[in-house]
Amino acid sequence: MSNFGFGFGPGSGGDPDDLSGKIPLFAELQRLLSGTGGPVNWDLARQLAISNLAGDHRSTTASDAAEVSEAIRLADHWLDDVTDLPSGISTTQAWSQVDWVEKTIGTWASVCDPVAGRVVAAMSSALPPEVAAQAGPMAPMMAQLGGLMFGAQLGQGLAALAGEVVSATDVGLPLGPQGTGALVVRNVEELASGLERGLEEVRLFLALREAAHHRLYSHVPWLRQQLIEAVDAYGRGITIDPNAISSAIGEIDPTNPESLQNALAGGLFEPQNTDAQNAALRRLETLLALIEGWVDTVVSASSRDRMHGSAALSEAMRRRRASGGPAEQTFATLVGLELRPRRLREAATLWGAMTQRHGPSVRDTLWNHPDLLPTPDDLDDALGFVSNYGTSQNLELAGLEEFAAGGEPQGSSDAQGSGDAEGSGEPQGSSDAEGSGSHDAQGSGEGSDGSGSSSQNDKPGS
């Protein structure tokens, strides 16, 4: 039962007969009975997440903050050479796992509320008519109980994620305060240990990814809203099996905490997939893949000539983001929402080919309008999209009328210079010239092998 994080079992302190003193959930139940609380109990989610992390908590130090700040500032400087999007970071922070929960839970509310709202509403309507009639004024309490139990699940999921994420944007969403570049110090150290790379090198590589994400989210004004709308569309497409909820509720014994845990672990809130939900999820996954693919491309371009282990680290991060870690999978099970860029490799191929064919300036104009972004079908034929890019419709939206008239594409002269700086002077079609995407298309194993052959003592240059 300790895996659930409610603090069940001996050693919790206080009166052994006072469940509310031992278990935060039951303290919240007392509040619920007194008429307080809301449809989704984010206060409980926060309490449980921090409670799960507290026993192994390690605060950050002034030295941690200085190392993170130095890495992010250097990373931002490197990115200036490979993208026209300016820096999106105004301040840097070193976070503990608890800091990550505290700083991001507000954004998680906006991400999860569309899904949670449907689930809680389903729970409220799960009572059989005769039971609802008998409940009378007590019936509205079911909505609060649903929010309470959903908050308990989210607390568990957030605690698990806090043990794995390495930065404020690690799951692809802008979770932290705008303009704040942050690394989760302990998780960065553990990732570096697992990759058998030097900590300084891994920290700088992750800082590059963090700084690249912030450039997108700070200077593509519609991007954040598009993501939230995609999640909202996913939530509207969810249908819940009321029979499953009703059955689970019937098995809960308020005096037995274990019965509540069993109901939650049994998928009480697991939504049933529908065509509408799957379509919304496909849209969300495509947008996440395009974001991650662009980040992968500019990070690879900025680091390949400066960091000996760049290729190996790029491949490791692609695999990590494409598959999702155990905590991310747990969170997806809890709320039915997968924040995973399944088509990361295809997106990276497209962005790399756009860089080579049209240059980084034209590549980045695809972020000028959501209608310019590649669709799932475009990812099926990434090189075809790149070859055909330049139609009058695309260029009118991008504001590249000169290119539409057959003139020199904006940024093409810069592309040549940037290609030399990025090591793209190799023959057209080489993996390095196209960035990480072409490398993927030719076989991802090379990056993995490179990790084994590179010295573990390689240090990043400046």
Describe the structure.
A two-stranded parallel ribbon has the order 1-2. It has 2 domains: 44-216 and 241-281, no CATH class; 344-453, no CATH class. α8 crosses α9 (199-219) and α14 (310-323) packs across α24. Mean pLDDT is 74; it is low at 1-23, 33-38 and 400-462. The chain is mainly alpha-helical. The protein contains 24 helices and 2 strands.
List the SSEs and their pairings:
Elements: H1 19-22, H2 24-33, H3 42-54, H4 62-79, E1 91-95, H5 97-124, H6 129-135, H7 141-162, E2 180-184, H8 185-195, H9 199-219, H10 223-236, H11 242-250, H12 257-265, H13 275-303, H14 310-323, H15 326-335, H16 344-358, H17 360-364, H18 376-380, H19 382-388, H20 392-398, H21 401-404, H22 412-421, H23 436-442, H24 445-453
Number of strands: 2
Strand content: under 5%
* Classification by helices and strands: mainly alpha
The separation of the N and C termini measures: 49 Å
Helicity level, as a percent range?
A: 55-70%
| Secondary-structure element string | HHHHEHHHEHHHHHHHHHHHHHHHHH
Poorly predicted runs: 1-23, 33-38, 400-462
CA-based gyration radius: 24 Å
Task: Return the average pLDDT rounded to an integer.
Answer: 74
Q: What's the domain count?
A: 2
The number of helical runs is 24
- Kindly report the spatial arrangement of strands forming the biggest sheet: 1-2
The biggest sheet, with number of strands, parallel, antiparallel or mixed sense and barrel status, is: 2 strands, parallel
Rough shape? globular
